[in-house]
Design brief:
Layout (H helix, E strand, L loop, with lengths): L6 H4 L12 H12 L5 E5 L6 H13 L7 E5 L5 H14 L9 E6 L6 H13 L4 E7 L7 H4 L2 E5 L5 H15 L2 E2 L1 H11 L3 H12 L4 E2 L1 H24 L3 H15 L3 H14 L4 H19 L4 H14 L1
The structure holds adenosine-5'-diphosphate (ADP) and magnesium ion.
The site of adenosine-5'-diphosphate (ADP) has 21 residues, from helix 1, helix 3 and helix 9.
Length: 316
């Protein structure tokens, strides 16, 4: 393992064999890589489940030691727009790869953050460079990706890791780092993080910095310290009709803690019950939470939906 300070990197699998869970996906990708000719790939799924990791594994398997010269990682959600992406692809595609594989690999993360028009431009770029480049597109929601892109890619739907996968990952880390973590702690970690391994590793690393023995108590303290306080403040700001402040704090909290819309929503729902407001008001907000949750699962935009919820709280 690379001796990175950050555990998410230190424990990032480098070979197909080291990837935990996602068996079906690993099996299919492995077969493609063995033929040394892969189609464009579209990875969809929630955060921290191995999308970027598997793109990197593919690069290592295809190009061996030369993988870095043959691999370009771009993020579509930076506000640099499709033109910047296009230029970077152009520059990268221009120079010939070093390995005996006739194409290079480009990982474009969060491609569902691009507008429909930008996705059209991306599709044309993919076509222009299809003889010299293969794209691995990653997204959270496959239904936000336009059909002409989907139809050009082999699609892989990633799921959150299962509890048994999570246990395996935690056991490996605890062994390497000399931590003491029991079963109920792992259960708590699973409840807190879902199957998001990035979040899991970050929580573990934070807790381990103060104590080698990690119990449910440490996990709960970490979780509440970092999130509930912020979320509570956001809700209270909204209840006091300070919408702009609530909204700004919402965006900060999501960004700083790497939380998804669903994570925040679950906490808002929990916090509402604790607040000193009328039952009627609680019911109205809880009902709204249900609606927003449905929309988020269907692929609606996190920020827009949560801001709409805050607007509702502020007005009622
Ligand atoms: N299937 C997995 N097996 C083992 N570790 C994983 C797996 N998925 C994610 N991880 C861990 O979580 C981190 C983040 O995963 P990544 O692949 O970057 O997530 P994303 O799906 O958001 O691209 C990795 O660096 C790795 O440490
Ligand atoms: Mg990623």
């Amino acid at each position: 393992m690379e001796n990175s300070y950050v555990w998410t990197e230190r424990y990032r699998p480098k070979k197909f064999e080291d990837v935990t869970g996602q068996h079906d996906i690993v099996r299919r990708l492995k077969a493609l890589v063995e033929q040394k000719n892969i189609p464009h790939l579209l990875f969809s799924g929630p955060a921290g489940v191995g999308k970027t990791t598997l793109a990197l594994v593919i690069a290592r398997e295809l190009y061996g030691d030369d993988w870095k010269q043959n691999f370009l990682e771009l993020n579509a959600s930076n506000d640099r727009g499709i033109d910047v992406i296009r230029n970077e692809v152009k520059d990268f595609a221009k120079t010939k790869g070093l390995a005996n594989i006739p194409f290079k690999l480009i990982l474009l993360d969060e491609c569902d953050a691009l507008t429909k028009e930008a996705q059209q431009a991306l599709r044309r770029t993919m076509e222009t460079y299809s003889s010299s480049c293969r794209f691995v597109l990653s997204c959270n929601f496959v239904n936000k990706v336009i059909d002409p892109i989907k139809s050009r890619c082999a699609i892989f739907k990633f799921k959150p890791l299962r509890k048994e996968d999570l246990i395996e990952i935690v056991k490996k880390i605890t062994k390497d780092e000399g931590l003491v973590v029991n079963e109920s702690t792992i259960t708590r970690l699973y409840e807190l993080t879902g199957g998001d391994i990035r979040q899991l590793q970050n929580v573990l690393q934070s807790c381990a910095s103060t104590s080698k023995t990690i119990t449910e108590k440490e996990i709960d303290e970490f979780a509440s310290k970092n999130e509930s306080k912020d979320v509570k403040e956001i809700v209270i700001l909204a209840l006091n009709k300070k919408f702009i402040l609530a909204r700004n704090k919402l965006l900060d909290t999501m960004l700083n803690n790497g939380l998804s819309g669903i994570d925040i929503l679950k906490q808002i729902q929990r916090e509402i019950m604790e607040l000193d407001i009328t039952d009627d008001k609680k019911l109205g907000i809880i009902e709204r939470c249900g609606e927003v949750e449905f929309r988020l699962v269907e692929g609606a935009n996190d920020n827009i939906q949560l801001e709409a919820l805050l607007a509702y709280i502020a007005r009622n």
